Amino acid sequence: MVQGKIDLLKGGEVLTQSKLDNGQQQPNPTDVTVYLEQMEQAAQGTFWTYLGCKMERLTDQELVISLDAQPHHLNVIGIVHGGVISSLLDNAMGAAVMALRPHEKVVTTNLNVHFVSPLKAGKLIVKASVLHQTRKSITAQATVSDQEGTLGSIGTGSFRVI
After folding, report:
1. CB-based burial of residue 158 (10 Å sphere; 0-12 exposed, 13-18 middle, 19+ buried)?
2. DSSP SS3 for 82
3. Which residues contact 23 (CB under 8 A, 6 or more apart)?
4. pTM (global) more than 0.70
5. What burial class does residue 19 get, using C-beta atoms within 10 Å of its C-beta: 0-12 exposed, 13-18 middle, 19+ buried?
6. What SS3 string covers 108-143?
7. So what's the architecture of 8-161 in CATH?
8. Tens of pLDDT, residues 58-107
9. Is residue 21 helix, strand or coil?
């Protein structure tokens, strides 16, 4: 993830990461857990829960979400629908951006998706990271793989701070 600190919210109070000896920021695992729980709670009742996304972990390098792809996530030829894959990429990159800028509102302005190989029903893992940021614009990348590690798609996204 782009160098910078991740501020975490806990009851309206900002919790900041502690510094490692090498100067890199490292979030307190308890604070990160609280932040991920808060993000999950905030997403209840939105497209996030309708799709079935789940927060897995957040580090200073990446955010990981998952989806247990079910028959309703598949297209007529039995593979995960491209719209589901695109939504997973957008959700993961958006969440990574929000973790970096928790006090700002961001929206997707561009989403690029490359479908590398078909994915089937089962657990899908999405890993997202922030590549670049300015005051008003953020660029992120993400991948979607199956539980065995087969790469299914790659995405990049641009996000605007509004």
Report:
1. middle
2. helix
3. none
4. yes
5. exposed
6. EEEEEEEECCCCCCEEEEEEEEEEEECCCEEEEEEE
7. Roll (3.10)
8. 988 899 999 999 999 999 999 999 999 999 999 999 999 999 988 899 99
9. coil
